[in-house]
């Protein structure tokens, strides 16, 4: 009889390949076999690092705040989420699994399990965790189905109408830092994607492209949302740019970043227009506006910032003239000093 790997405990480590494959296939309707897990096209290890971390945080304090204990529990709740069940309907179903006598924190146990399943299914920061950090955008879903909530959250019409925004090739993740001084924060919460924080000096980027590829047939995310999110990654990580590839490789060597983020395709000219983005339109406008308005503040930023060619050449010509002036001035001072020394010490 085949072993049911989904019955393993959420905190059991290490998680085997077969268990991971069963989770992927059950959550997202895939057909990943153990021999295909380390596929060259998709990178699942980054997602399962997130999966394990979320389970550890949810089961803090001996698991006193959550009912789920096994991967099977998560998969069963996720199935209700995908079937458009309301939160109250899912809670009613889960009440049958409550121990007897009924705990005083029964609602907390049920809500904690539903929020964990929703986080693992969609990589969105549902729930308010007492311990741990799920992301800056904490989503509180309390009624209706999960699909209705997610559609309502992401499908808000763009509020910023700026037709002159141009997403040139220089606008990529590598240049955000070296030109505009914007720090990148690699987020695990899809709701934080492209969000500017810390006085607009840090931007959150959701890099789990393999996860997004698995969501293309999702009935929960709005139509076109997943494809557009992948296009934002193709915009920020142009796979044909050798310098960006080298930069991304260095980032991946020190962080657990999904390598698929650097392989999201190449955008055509019409795909780079701001009006081709709907769900991420406003955040892209904010990020691009800050990028355009940022002035170089360090020597390295002055060197790499060639968005305004005339200004760049003027600055470096002036810097060169200043440097030559200082050098010649020093030479003249040294020569003058030597001449004065010889005048007072002719025998030397």
What's the helical proportion of residues?
Answer: 40-55%
Structural class: mainly alpha
Which strand order do you get reading across the main beta sheet?
Answer: 1-3-2
Q: How would you describe the shape?
A: elongated
Largest sheet, in brief, is: 3 strands, mixed
Number of domains: 3
Q: Taking all residues together, what is the mean pLDDT?
A: 86
Distance between the termini: 102 Å
| Beta-strand fraction estimate | under 5%
Q: How many helices? A: 14
What radius of gyration results from the CA coordinates?
Answer: 27 Å
Could you give the order of the helices and strands? HHHHHHHHEEEHHHHHH
> Regions with pLDDT < 50 over 5+ consecutive residues?
none
- The tally of strands reads 3
Transmembrane segments: 312-331
Keywords: Membrane, Transmembrane, Transmembrane helix
Explain this structure:
Keywords: Membrane, Transmembrane, Transmembrane helix. The protein folds into three domains: 5-154, no CATH class; 173-300, no CATH class; 308-348. The chain is 48% helix and 3% strand. It has 14 helices and three strands. It has helices at residues 17-28, 45-58, 60-63, 71-82, 87-94, 106-122, 146-154, 173-178, 209-213, 225-236, 242-254, 281-293, 299-304, 309-344, and strands spanning 183-187, 196-197, 202-206. The chain has a three-stranded mixed beta sheet with strand order 1-3-2. A hairpin with a 4-residue loop joins β2 (196-197) and β3. α4 (71-82) crosses α6 and α5 (87-94) crosses α6 (106-122). The radius of gyration is 27 Å and the shape is elongated.
């Amino acid at each position: 009889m085949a072993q049911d790997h989904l019955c393993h405990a959420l905190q059991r480590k290490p998680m085997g390949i077969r268990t991971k494959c069963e989770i992927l296939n059950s959550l997202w309707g895939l057909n990943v076999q153990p021999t295909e897990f380390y596929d060259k096209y998709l990178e699942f290890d980054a997602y399962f690092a997130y999966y394990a971390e979320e389970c550890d945080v949810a089961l803090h304090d001996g698991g006193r705040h959550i009912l789920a204990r096994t991967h099977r529990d998560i998969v069963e709740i996720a199935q209700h989420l995908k079937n458009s069940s309301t939160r109250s309907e899912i809670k009613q179903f889960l009440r049958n699994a409550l121990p007897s006598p009924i705990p005083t924190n029964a609602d907390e146990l049920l809500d904690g399990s539903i929020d964990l399943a929703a986080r693992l299914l969609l990589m969105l920061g549902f729930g308010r965790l007492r311990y741990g950090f799920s992301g800056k955008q904490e989503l509180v879903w309390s009624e209706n189905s999960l699909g209705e909530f997610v559609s309502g959250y992401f499908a808000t019409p763009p509020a910023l109408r700026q037709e002159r925004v141009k997403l040139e090739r220089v606008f990529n993740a590598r240049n955000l830092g070296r030109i505009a001084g914007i720090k990148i924060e690699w987020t695990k919460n899809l709701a934080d994607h492209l969000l500017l924080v810390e006085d607009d000096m840090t931007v959150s980027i959701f890099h789990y492209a393999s996860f997004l590829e698995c969501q293309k047939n999702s009935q929960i995310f709005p139509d076109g949302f997943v494809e557009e999110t992948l296009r934002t990654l193709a915009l920020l990580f142009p796979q044909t740019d050798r310098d960006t590839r080298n930069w991304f490789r260095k980032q991946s060597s020190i962080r657990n970043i999904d390598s698929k983020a650097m392989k999201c395709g190449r955008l055509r000219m019409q795909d780079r227009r701001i009006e081709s983005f709907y769900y991420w339109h406003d955040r892209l406008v904010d990020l691009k506006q800050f990028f355009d308005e940022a002035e170089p503040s360090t020597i390295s930023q002055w060197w790499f910032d060639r968005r305004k060619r005339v200004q760049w050449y003027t600055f470096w010509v002036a810097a060169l003239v200043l440097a030559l002036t200082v050098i010649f001035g020093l030479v003249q001072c040294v020569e003058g000093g030597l001449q004065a020394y010889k005048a007072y010490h002719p025998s030397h």
